[in-house]
Amino acid sequence: MPALPEHPAHEDLRRRLAATLNAVAVTGRDAPAPEAYAEDLLARWAEPQRRYHTTDHLVAVLAHIDVLAPFAENAELVRLAAWFHDAVYHPDRAHNEDRSARLAERALPEAGLSTPDTAEVARLVRLTVGHDPEPGDRNGEVLCDADLAILASSPEAYAVYAAAVREEYAFVPEDAFRDGRAAILDQLLTLPRLFRTEYGAAHWEEAARRNLRGELDLLRAGHREG
Fold first, then answer.
1. Which residues of 38-56 are buried (b: 16+ CB within 10 A; e: fewer)?
2. What is the pLDDT of residue 1?
3. Is 1 part of a structural domain of the chain?
4. Distance (Å, rounded) from C-alpha 197 to C-alpha 201?
5. Which of 2, 57, 83, 158 has a CA that sits 20 to 30 A from residue 43's CA?
6. Span 49-100, pLDDT tens digits
């Protein structure tokens, strides 16, 4: 069976991960070449069960982190957390974030990170369960804002995102999916602020809430029709 074509961004992503690892690795320590970690992670992000949590999502989150980097305490550790935050992703299983964090805890010491930096990356990955960082958690605010930035996209792009999420959960019956998805949207809308950085609050909050309310209305209308 012929190999699938490589994602157009893979070469740039390899360079980006190498630069990030080189920036945060402890000097004087032997570690495998960054390419080994890039290949493993890129293979994970390209797994066939993914429809939204794909390489495109990784590219988008990293791009948003570039915008938000001035708000982070350590933007390079936030970038590493982005690489790992959905590295383990199976829609039909629970605890993907914790499994992804544990993958980071195994891989990053070998890649040359210190114990505190490894712990910070793993903490950030686990934070994406609820996207609710504590006040003053600058790294957490940047990662969560970058991960949620899709919510503030144009109505057309948001519709594509919502459809991709539904495809990932195609194994879930329609009524159950509507109820579960509506609960997630309700939980997000009850947050005092979706975006915690100054940039996110100023540029993304209003559009995101509008998109969330629109999807919630569609889900509830579908439930009534069903």
1. beebbebbeeeebbbbbbe
2. 34
3. no
4. 6
5. 158
6. 999 999 999 999 999 999 999 999 999 999 999 999 999 999 999 899 999 9
104 with 80: CB under 8 angstroms? yes
Domain count within the chain: 1
- What pLDDT digit, counting tens, does each position of 162-178 carry? 999 999 999 999 999 99
User: Could you tell me the pLDDT band of residue 224, with boundaries at 50, 70 and 90?
Assistant: low
pLDDT higher than 60, residue 225? no
Please give the Cα distance from 93 to 100 (Å, whole number): 13
- 84 with 105: CB under 8 angstroms? no
- In the block, which residue shows the tokens 């100023």? 202
Helix (H, G, I), strand (E, B) or coil at 169: coil
- The sign of the torsion formed by the CA atoms of 50, 47, 24, 22 equals negative
Residue 3 lies in a domain: no
- CATH number of residue 31's parent domain: 1.10.3210.10
Distance CA 71, CA 114 (A): 23
Q: What angle do CA 54, 57, 60 make, to 5 degrees?
A: 155
Structural domain harbouring 122: 10-225
